[in-house]
Amino acid sequence: MAYYPKSQIKTNLFTEGSQLETISTGEEYTGYYWQTSKDEYFTGRNPSDGVSIPLQIIATPPPIKVSLLTYTNNNITYNKLKDVNISETLNLPYYQKPIPIEEDYQIGNLVRYFCKKINENLYIETTKDIYNKIIKKDKGYAYTLYQPFTLVWKISGNRKEVEQINQRIVQTTEFQQKIVGLKEYLNFNYIEFYK
Fold first, then answer.
1. Is the confidence at residue 67, as pLDDT, over 50?
2. Alpha helices in 19-100 (DSSP H)
3. Whole-angstrom Cα distance, residue 12 to residue 14?
4. What is the pLDDT of residues 85-103, one digit of tens each?
5. What's this model's pTM, rounded to 2 decimal places?
6. DSSP per residue over 138-151, as a string?
7. How far is CA 113 from the centre of its chain?
8. Residue 160 CA to chain centroid, in angstroms?
9. What is the pLDDT of residues 138-157, one digit of tens each?
10. Could you give the CA distance from residue 28 to residue 2 in angstroms, rounded to a whole number?
11. Closest alpha carbon to 187 in 18, 12, 9
12. What's the maximum distance between 2 C-alpha atoms anywhere in the chain?
């Protein structure tokens, strides 16, 4: 194992699963790990804790982009029984990852927009425009199905402080909004967009 200066690694990190997997086998990893400044992950508490097996973040595909809530023409019986007018459709929020611009990095923050499904832990990061339409109860959108909220996300400064601040922001938001699962949706990545 190569030598890493203490300033270039984070040690004694722990995952309960669903975050990391071994690169060689793709098996989900649970236990202690350490991380380099180049976002490389290894098993063990630190580089000298036995054999360190390389790990990687478990890739999660972005949510499927769904833009309309519609009822199929093929289900004529259902539509008649429920008196559904299939010509009326409601827009749903769709996934849109923000792209920070240089001005955001100069300010040090980025506003991220989210919608959470009211009846399940389904989160969608979306655009400011769609967020505003859900907030304003636009009749063209299925606003009754979603709880909109924002995060003011720190993206520049001291890396460790940025990570701690964003982690507190997520925890506070979960508490204030009475929601769970946001940390998992964000893959516990509190330095996303950091530069």
1. no
2. 76-81
3. 6
4. 655 668 888 888 899 999 9
5. 0.57
6. -TTB-GGGEEEEEE
7. 11
8. 19
9. 888 888 999 999 999 999 99
10. 24
11. 18
12. 70
